[in-house]
Write the structure tokens for this entry.
Amino acid sequence: MPRVTISEMLKKVRAIEIRTNHQVNEALAGQYRSVFRGSGIDFDEVREYVPGDDVRSIDWKVTARQGRPFIKKYREDRELTILLAIDVSASGNFGSGAESKRERAAELASVLAFSAIKNRDNVGLLLFTDQVELYIPPAKGRFHVLRVIREILFHEPRRRGTNLQVALESIRRTQKRRAVVFLISDFCLNGDFAAELSALKTVLHTVNRRHDLVAVSVSDPRESQLPDVGRLTLEDAETGELVELNTGSAAVRARFQALADGRGTELRKTFNANAVDLVELDTARPYLPVLRQFFSTRERRVRR
């Protein structure tokens, strides 16, 4: 990633803040809060007992002091912890259009982060490659979120590969408070794709049992559809492996798309089998309608 000046960095972060704040206020108002629930209940007040109240709620100390029955009232603890676990491996720098996959992930993460602070929730960040690159503990406030966005956009990874298991194991060990965890990645895994996903099953189940895990896949159209431009040499951004393809061949293009479709199917099967929601985005289409649809689907499920 090319070096940027501090002024360029601030300008880009500010631009994302303005754009995503508008989307939070105009498009997602109300949806975020109704989709995600808090982690428990908090004491609210003591009030006088009325017929029909649960006698198990009687506060006997206050009752004895006042000479008539009082009960404790509770309210749902609505404070949430949002943890953004974002893949910053080398494959995320690819983009065939105006945005790279990493830039799209950063904008999505910004919408989620600003939705969180608008509701006084905590936001944390975990950046990973094939190791944990950076962890920022959950906290509140605009300046905290701006730091999170800056790191998503401009953190320079030490490694190039991807290891989802490392990220999930880190979340399992360190995140003691229940959180809504957004695992944002292009899911470009090395080796046998199905085998790599299969190896994740245990940790996926463990993390999703303790937390509310949502997987977000960010792709680019050129990763599934090759243009007809003759012979191309493609380089794997993470391994450096070179592959030469004749894109002039319809059979080659069809095989390339079939492999990509197969990976997508395996991804959906794996997350579905572990009761993990999957949101699928790509860099060529607006992400907001997809996010709104996800929120609507979750909202209907929560209300059942």
